[in-house]
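Example record used in the benchmark description.
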Amino acid sequence: MTRKVSKNTKKEELSLETVLWNCRVALRGYGSSEKNRDAVIGLVFLKFAGEKFEARRKEILAEQPDIPLLMEMPASYNAKNVYYLKENARWDYIVKNAASNDIAVILDTAMKDIEEDNESLRGALPQNLYATLGASSSKLKSLIDEINKINKDRFHEDDLIGRVYEYFLQIYAASGTKEDGEFYTPASVVKLIAELIEPYDGVVYDPCCGSGGMFVQSMKFIDRHQGNRQKVSIIGQESVPDTWKLCKMNLSIRGIAHDLGDRNASTFQNDLFKDRKVDYIMANPPFNLKNWRDEDELLDDPRFDGYPMPPVSNANYAWILHMISKLDETDGIAGFLLANGALNAGGDEGKIRKEILEKDLVEAIIVLPRDMFYTTDISVTLWIINKNKKAKLGNNRTLRNRQNEVLFMDLRTWDKNIETIQIDKGKKKRKVAFTDKDIKKVREIYQAWQSEDAYYTDVAELCKSATLDDIRKEDYSLAPSKYIDFIDHDLDIDYEKEMARIQEEMRDVLKKEKESQKMLEEAFRGIGYDLN
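Model output (structure tokens):
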């Protein structure tokens, strides 16, 4: 008997990954990969903004049925962190007109109108993109149809918006060619930073915020630990215009209040938060950034007072000093990533590192496994800078005095968990990712080291608590391998037993060689060759 499959069953069989994949390939071949990315993510934004608008519209009607005018007032929506949409910018209008020959113009007009009606989105949405993309109306309709399939009735995700945005940001980063890791930081690495610096309340800052992953994970941290989002303020800066827009959209559609300034800008040349102090910093600066200033530029900048000037050839220590200058003097804490070269860099960078250590600002140095980033396979280091390493009460724990101590951890062997990302048909990227269990273990070691009432012990080839005197003896190197004990595994060998095994194997090899040579000689004699 043939089983009849209902329409509802077919609907459920369609996976979210399939829909997202179809969205990615709908515009393949049109425009650059960046334009393709912006076109897809822009429409995803319209879809989710439209859903929130319609939900709020129903609320207004239920609350004030006798005042229909309220449904057309932007303030009625903005008060609930929802964007007001004119009729032509609403998702149902976009879907209804998807087959129109001028759908590209309709989309560009919608983006323009949304920005005009919502001050907080000024400069964030793609403008004049769809008409200049070169994609046919049928291709744009295909993309709209696929995005329209993304809904909570079909896909029962707790955070569908976040899931979809994370997919696109990750996949476009993995497909890119940048070699500095700046566009997207893998979620498991960002989660680790949040779990260590614990941004429960205060101002969270990222001076090179990319697409906003640090901010998203800081909010997820609060949710995981039953904190209050209202106690956290988000501020950040990004120099790349398209990435600044992506960050604005990413945070806006998730309902995360933020201040990224009114435009993209260089953190070094145009600090948008010049006189602002912050409680937490989470950052992944561009690795080994060159030419971040001119030779005679920023020489009198107060951010670098008391230190040698970071070299033009590498901005690593410029980022460090910038972040130190931003931290609250009482309790500011920062967690950020840098290429491993910063641990041992010499010259003026080495002198800066010495000053930072003598000022007792470094709390922990954690080397991560290789191959965690999508566009580079280098190993990087997580630095934790803390303005207050004295004994105190913090987050329901009694912290001991850690002055003149640094915790070193080496996680380079934690590379067994592999995450596979489908870039294209037949093309995948395999990257190392931390599991939740890995993150929990690092957090436990770090907090045990910090705490008065927890038991911490150094573990060979994993972690070591070093004193400032130890670090002075190593010429202020911050390479964990200088301090963490190494186990000589050769000492575990039973040499007599091992030599006996090797000798027996050699005798066996020589015996077989002799037998083989004898057989070869007999074969040659058999065909009449004289081997003498």
